[in-house]
């Protein structure tokens, strides 16, 4: 039971709501246009959760390799860093989640497109493979992009653009330019979560040579960057609602604005370990933002 508890800690459950935000928004927008398939939706959620857990496990392994996980790190104590889980067994668990992600993703594509060898299905399989590679390469290996200031870009692409447009495409088999506005909104908020994590760890990352955005630009500019990301999400969703909502219900996502204002106030006043609690806050706020944005499109 103690080992299970440590694995659950390494799964980082508080990150899972964020990973679901794009899938839920894309699926709800498809529903508002008369498209929705239950089984592909379930498989999309399953695949996304497997990919997120894979990313979290690989991140823990990669940071351990590079010495970033140490006694000076301000986040939760990692399971392999503390010795609670053996590294060899931990690597096997990563392989398990690579397989689960691949199997679930393949089943998703097959269900959505009734086959695996059409142009659309091959495209989605390719994007799925890219998602698995991106989940691993964030911190693992010499070319880990998370150590070279590229983590934010990849989060925007995979948590925002691909998550929303991909789930929409699986339902509708079409892409519209307008969809990139809500996709960008989720992407910006997802970048905010990563930036918050990196602001918390800025001192240790600096010492360990992990060149995140906050390390590169400093904590003051990183906070301004954070405010810009959150505001950009609301700008994108407001433009989308203004242009494509049939009723005023399209703007109900604005009810989440107080949550984000309170969050930004706490980010402004705090740094280091005091920012840790805001990770869960921003993840859950993003999930509520996505759900309300999708529900508002139904009317």
Structure notes:
73% of the residues lie in helices and 0% in strands. The protein has a single domain, classed as Orthogonal Bundle (Farnesyl Diphosphate Synthase), CATH 1.10.600. The protein has 299 residues and is mainly α. The mean pLDDT is 92. α2 (16-32) runs parallel beside α13.
Order of helices and strands: HHHHHHHHHHHHH
**Given the structure, what is the number of helices?**
13
Straight-line distance between termini? 47 Å
What's the total number of strands? 0
Mean pLDDT: 92
Low-confidence stretches: none
**Global morphology:** globular
What CATH architecture label applies? Orthogonal Bundle
Strand content: under 5%
Instruction: Write down the CATH class.
Output: Mainly Alpha
CATH topology: Farnesyl Diphosphate Synthase
Percent helix: over 70%
Backbone structural class: mainly alpha
In the residues, how many domains can be counted? Answer: 1
Computed CA radius of gyration, to the nearest angstrom:
19 Å
Describe the sheet with the most strands.
none
Topology at a glance:
Elements: H1 2-11, H2 16-32, H3 38-65, H4 79-82, H5 87-113, H6 119-137, H7 151-172, H8 180-200, H9 202-208, H10 213-217, H11 219-244, H12 257-269, H13 277-296
Helix pairs in contact: 2-3, 2-7, 2-8, 2-13, 3-5, 3-6, 5-6, 6-7, 7-8, 8-11, 8-13, 11-12, 12-13
């Amino acid at each position: 039971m103690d080992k299970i508890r440590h694995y659950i800690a390494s799964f980082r459950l508080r990150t899972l709501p964020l990973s679901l935000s794009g899938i839920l928004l894309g699926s709800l927008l498809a529903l508002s246009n008369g498209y929705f398939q239950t089984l592909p939706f379930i498989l999309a959620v399953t695949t996304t959760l497997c990919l997120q857990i894979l990313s979290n496990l690989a991140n823990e392994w990669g940071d351990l390799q590079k010495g970033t996980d140490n006694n000076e790190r301000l986040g939760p104590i990692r399971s392999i860093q503390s010795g609670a889980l053996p590294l060899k067994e931990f690597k096997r668990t990563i392989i398990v989640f690579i397989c689960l992600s691949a199997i679930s993703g393949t089943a998703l594509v097959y269900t959505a497109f009734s086959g695996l060898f059409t142009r659309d299905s091959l495209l989605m399989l390719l994007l799925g493979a890219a998602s698995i590679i991106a989940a691993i390469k964030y911190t693992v290996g010499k070319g880990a992009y998370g150590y070279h200031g590229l983590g934010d870009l990849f989060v925007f692409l995979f948590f925002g653009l691909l998550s929303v447009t991909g789930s929409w495409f699986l339902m509708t088999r079409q892409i519209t330019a307008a969809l990139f506005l809500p996709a960008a909104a989720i992407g910006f908020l997802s970048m905010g979560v990563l930036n918050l994590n990196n602001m918390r760890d800025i001192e240790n990352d600096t010492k360990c040579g992990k060149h995140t955005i906050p390390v590169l630009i400093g904590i003051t500019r990183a906070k301004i960057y954070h405010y810009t990301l959150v505001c950009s999400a609301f700008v994108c969703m407001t433009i989308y609602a203004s242009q494509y909502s049939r009723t005023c219900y399209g703007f109900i996502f604005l009810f989440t604005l107080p949550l984000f204002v309170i969050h930004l106030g706490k980010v402004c006043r705090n740094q280091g370990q005091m920012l840790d609690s805001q990770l869960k806050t921003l993840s859950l706020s993003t999930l509520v933002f996505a759900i309300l944005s999708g529900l508002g499109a139904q009317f």
